[in-house]
Specification:
- The chain is α/β, with parallel strands linked by helices.
- The chain has a single domain, classed as Alpha/Beta hydrolase fold, catalytic domain (Rossmann fold, 3-Layer(aba) Sandwich).
- The chain has nine helices and ten strands.
- The longest helix is centred in the first third of the chain and has 20 residues.
- The structure holds 2-acetamido-2-deoxy-beta-D-glucopyranose (2 copies).
- The site of one 2-acetamido-2-deoxy-beta-D-glucopyranose (NAG) has 7 residues, from helix 2.
- Esterase involved in the hydrolysis of xylan, a major structural heterogeneous polysaccharide found in plant biomass representing the second most abundant polysaccharide in the biosphere, after cellulose.
């Protein structure tokens, strides 16, 4: 009995070890002015043009914690996609730089460029699908999701932001600045003003824009729920659709969560009574990105 228990424990330790040893650091991957570290998980078996999922961490979080705490690597094994885990060099609070003019500009620099360099490197190295690059994260990772789809609409196919803020809401004069005003829901703009912030990130760009879903708890006292409303105004205006939803579904995927869709490219979930620790629903992300798809007809930048 003791021996069996011991064997099981050892087996469990070995499989945990195996999983963590599969997160590989890449050191030379292109322009990276803020010295963000790159970690990647590449499944043993992949389709010829695998999709890519980027998973930026939360404040005080690490690449390793996202790798361990989210199912993306396991789902990548199952459905055939690569996942990338950037790690900030900002050791003060391990939050992403979502404030600098550099991050908030296409190819401008900041943490955003470092992360995009990881994507560009991976596209080349693994002949990955440039039309199926996705980004999802929680809190600071959700802010970075908004930043990446805003500054790099030419790279991403879609984003999924869990408890974040609108693109540019943290805008400041330096890298990785915290904005109390934004966090507490005091940065209020009209849809067209918010959309201008996004459009100014990449002046003259008129191509495909990544679709976005954003999810937020009504009891979030770190990034106040007003930030969901500001994202709704921003992205509906970017997509040129009404701020009135085209479809509202209650109790999905959990009781008390309400999904509002605004045309085909944007959806917002309001999770009643949920605080800043909104629990990621992997299926919601996988389905929005169509990452379970194995046909030649999956959602991509080529989809309408
Ligand atoms: C970049 O970050 C790594 C740790 O992630 C550190 O070892 C290295 O010294 C940093 N390089 C610079 C130039 O800051
Ligand atoms: C990421 O950075 C943190 C903070 O410096 C560090 O503890 C961690 O080991 C780094 N690497 C990964 C894979 O998370």
């Amino acid at each position: 009995m003791l021996r069996i228990t011991l064997t099981l424990l050892l087996a469990a330790a070995a499989s945990a070890q195996k999983l963590s040893s599969k997160l590989t650091q890449i050191t030379e991957f292109g322009p990276n002015p803020r010295n963000v570290s790159m970690y990647i998980y590449v499944p043993a078996s992949l389709p010829p043009n695998p999709p890519i999922l980027v998973a930026p961490h939360w404040c005080h979080g690490t690449a390793q914690q996202v790798f361990n705490g989210r199912p993306w690597a396991t789902l990548g094994d199952q459905y055939g996609f690569i996942s990338i885990y950037p790690n900030t060099s900002n050791l003060a609070d391990q939050c992403w730089d979502v404030s600098s003019k550099e991050s908030l500009s296409h190819d401008g620099g900041g943490d955003a460029l470092g992360i995009v360099s990881m994507v560009r490197w991976t596209l080349k190295k693994y002949n990955a699908d440039k039309n199926r690059v996705f980004v999802t994260g929680t809190s600071s990772g959700a802010m970075m999701t908004n930043v990446l789809v805003g500054s790099y609409p030419d790279i991403f196919a879609a984003g999924s932001a869990w408890a974040g803020v609108a693109f540019g809401c943290f805008a400041g004069n330096g890298y990785g600045e915290w904005s109390d005003a934004c966090a507490t829901g005091k940065i209020i703009k009209s849809g067209s003003d918010w959309a201008a912030v996004v459009k100014n990130a990449y002046p003259g760009y008129s191509g495909f824009r990544p679709k976005l879903q954003t999810l937020h708890g009504t009891a979030d006292n770190v990034l106040y729920p007003q930030n969901l409303k500001e994202q709704v105004k921003q992205w509906t205006s970017v997509f040129g659709v009404s701020e009135t939803p085209t479809e509202v579904t209650k109790d999905t995927p959990l009781k008390g969560w309400t999904r509002s869709r605004y045309g085909k490219k944007f959806e917002a979930y309001e999770a009643a009574g949920v605080d800043h620790n909104i629990p990621t629903q992997a299926d919601v992300v996988m389905d929005f990105f169509d990452l379970k798809c194995k046909s030649s007809n999956c959602y991509s930048r080529r989809s309408r």
